[in-house]
Amino acid sequence: MKDSFTITDFSVLQAQLDHVPEHRVLAALARDHCTGKDLAALLSPAAEPFLPQLAARSREITRQRFGRTTQIYAPLYLSNYCVNRCAYCGFSAGNRIHRRKLTLDEAVAEAEILRRRGFQHILLVSGEAPAVLDVDYLEAIARRLRDRFAAVSIEVQPLDEDEYARLFRAGITAVAIYQETYDRRVYDRVHLAGRKCDYDFRLATPARAAAAGMREVGIGALLGLSDWRAEGLAIGLHLAWLRRRFWQTGFTVSFPRLRPAAGEFQPLVTVNEKNLSQLIFALRIFDPDVGLILSTREEPRYRDGMLGLGPTRYSAGSCTAPGGYSHEDHDGEQFSVGDHRSVEEVCRVIRSRGFDPVCKDWDRAFQQVLEGPGTCHLHLSVGGCSCGHKSIGNYLEIPGLLRPAAGASPPSTQRVEKIQ
Amino acid sequence: MLTIADIPFSSRLFVGTGKFASAGIMRQAIEASGAGMVTVALRRVDLDNPEDDIMSHLDRERFHFLPNTSGARNAEEAIRLARLARAATGTPWLKLEVTPDPRTLLPDPIDTLKATEILAHEGFIVLPYINADPILALRLQDVGAAAVMPLGAPIGTNLGLRTALQVSIIIEQARVPVVVDAGIGAPSHAALAMEMGADAVLVNTAIAVAGDPVRMARAFRQAVESGRDAFEAGLGAASTSAHASSPETGIIGEDLDFLQEEA
Amino acid sequence: MQIICNGQRRDLAEDTTLAAMLAMLDLDPNTVVAEVNKKIIERDQYEDLRLRDGDRIELIRFVGGG
After folding, report:
1. A26–B247: do the CB atoms touch at under 8 Å?
2. Residue ranges of chain B with pLDDT lower than 70?
């Protein structure tokens, strides 16, 4: 599939959110399969009076698809070096903060702390500075962590498909990459220098990660940069586009929200908790299967209140500065944490609300991927294997394929050389 | 406008040519159906009774021919029939049928996938006939199928859309046209398939064995058109509870008191 | 010589062409497709292809089908 995702001008998206009649909101709430138009109705101002009903529908769908579980993960900040100058971020190259990159041993030590706290899923985060933190480093970290955790994901600079494939073979199973804003004009205004200025390259990144075989890809927008309703619509369209092309990939959406704080970047657009909730409910109704992530940017009261209503994954006990778990030090943070509770406290609250905090949802041991280039085992002689290798040549060589139908053909498990 | 492999079709009803009482009735029925694509099968010539060539009754200029591989029990036989069909018609269009069980005539998913990949690689425009298995439909698209043809019910049973739920999943996920094939026994079945969003339907038995095949063909034509119109017009959502046509309040919602107004 | 056509044994004169055989069977070459020893023969080859003793020929045509 050679096409790439494109988003229309933000003003066109915004037009779809205006003048939505009430009956369209009610129709969207009643439908089993929502279209883009339904999503627009749910995101529109017309849907605001129906927020409790959106919540009820979102809760119903979430319970049906996810049961009463909430996944728990922790971020692990590897480095806050960054070559970009993003107006909104603590790591911006222009900011005077204490810069640090963890050595492999330091990173493993941080990870060990998290593992002892019970986390089985960690998210490796870094600023974008390829000269400082490159794919070799990530590959090395992945290899050291893969056997300690059920799932290791990354949220780093956009990479090529080959680089993602390398990391996948090394043990990374998921990639998070947020467009920050789908509004091209605002994007150009807030990304002042660095490779991140390339809107299109970033926009095509989730597709590259999925094509490389990542089990899960996370998208999202930084709420507060542009009209959040239009961002929601863009996220939904992006998600639907990705799902159609990468049907074997799981998807998640995150909702990092800029909030006014003294001395920090002021959001260009106000996004309050009601707005955030409407966005979450609308996306849940639009896509019943997408994972929805609430990080510790949000307050305990809000996170607790949202349990079961749509979000399915929570971070806990987070520190957003490199090395912050080993040394309780918040110098050089990416953002101020809103929920400072420990993972034990968060899990206790989750249980008290009748939900089961889940630290492990997938075990990499089920993945039939060998490290490095070389042979791969085909478990079915048909149509390729889970590594994504093209197999057209493979089974034409398998003896017994083109054989008269005297009795059923036995299944063949063959070792086949990887086709370049 | 329906397009398959970049070829446009003004009619979303495809018709099979089997089981008709006579070639004359077949021709009139196809005419009445408005179909632009007809399927044909390949068989050994009976040397003692060489029958009338079916193609002499069908105008090559007016109809798009879709040879099928009916009779094939495995990928090898289907591929062989496909190559014969291409030699005979000069076109690469193919309805791939791999049916090892002569009693049910249900399609073999594994050999269908194998044959599709090989034939697509050889340049065929492959329309595989499958059980309504959404994952299989996706795998077939990945290896180059030009459309997918999930069954509504086994061939010849006229049982309608028994597989409606899976067909709707296939339609939702498909990147190629979805043609519901087999089991369509009445115009209402065809209309339902179109209302669900199918791109086309293929009907054979229901027309050929009807009391008045020509009239039945016309009925199917109308059903396919009306079903498609309804789909494009935007059907209202079905629901198990009543929703008044006038706005109403009082739908029970969640307690959202935990939300704070200020950011 | 003897050939097998559609499963039936038939005696033919040496060097009979495929086209000639079809004419003998009263078949219009444009309505059939021929396989000789599992190989599909293009229509423009019918006049040139000389059959040999033991050849297995399949003559296939389109019939009605769903």
Report:
1. yes
2. 236-251, 262-263
Parallel, antiparallel or unpaired: strands B93-96 and B125-130:
parallel
Find out whether B74 and B109 touch, Cβ atoms under 8 Å.
no
Q: Are the Cβ atoms of C66 and B204 closer than 8 angstroms?
A: yes
* Residue C63 burial (C-beta neighbours within 10 Å; 0-12, 13-18, 19+): buried
pLDDT digits (tens, 9 = 90+) for B225-248: 999 999 998 776 665 555 554 444
Residues B184, B51, B89: CA angle, nearest 5 degrees: 65
The strand pairing partners of A218, in sequence order, are: A176, A252
Task: Write out the residue range of the structural domain in which residue C53 sits.
Answer: 2-60
Q: Tokens in use for B113?
A: 């996938």
DSSP string over B55-114: GGGS-TTT-EEEEB-TT--SHHHHHHHHHHHHHHHSS-EEEE-----TTT----HHHHHH
Give the angle subtended at the CA of B258 by the CAs of B257 and B263, to the nearest 5°. 110
Compute and round to an integer the Cα radius of gyration of chain A. Answer: 22
Cβ-contact B108, B99 below 8 angstroms: yes
Chain C hits for B40, CB-CB cut-off 8 Å, are: 62-65
The ipTM of this complex is 0.86
Q: Which residues contact A231 (CB under 8 A, 6 or more apart)?
A: A181, A182, A183, A221, A223, A225, A279
Phi, psi angles (nearest 5°) of residue C65: -170, 160
User: Look-up: residue for tokens 């909104």?
Assistant: A88
| SS3 category, C63 | strand
B238 contact C CB<8A: no
What domains sit in chain A, N to C, each tagged with a CATH number?
Answer: 24-366 (3.20.20.70), 368-420 (no CATH)
Q: Which residues of B touch C31 (CB under 8 A)?
A: 53, 55-56
The reply to whether C22 falls in a domain is yes
Q: What's the pLDDT at B2?
A: 96
CATH number reported for the structural domain that contains residue C14 in this entry: 3.10.20.30
Collapsing DSSP to helix, strand or coil, A86 comes out as strand
Half-sphere exposure of A9 (CA within 13 A, CB side): 4
Task: Pull the structure tokens for residue C15.
Answer: 């060097």
Output b/e per residue, B104-121; b: 16+ Cβ within 10 A. Answer: ebbbbbbbbbbbbbbbbe
Q: Is residue C65 part of a domain?
A: no
- Contact: C62, B155; criterion CB under 8 Å: no
pLDDT digits (tens, 9 = 90+) for A272-283: 999 999 999 999
The answer to whether A207 and A5 have CB atoms below 8 angstroms apart is yes
Closest CA to B127 of B97, B95, B100, B154: B95
- The residue extents of the domains of chain B are 2-233
What is the CATH superfamily name and number for domain B2-233?
Answer: Aldolase class I (3.20.20.70)
Residue B150 Cα distances to B51, B97, B130, B180, B261, angstroms:
32, 11, 5, 5, 51
Q: How far apart are CA A95 and CA A85, in angstroms?
A: 9
Which tokens sit at A240?
A: 């639907």
Residues 4-23 of B with CB under 8 A from A: none
What confidence tier does A381 reach under pLDDT thresholds 50, 70, 90? Answer: very low
Question: Does residue C29 lie in a domain region?
Answer: yes
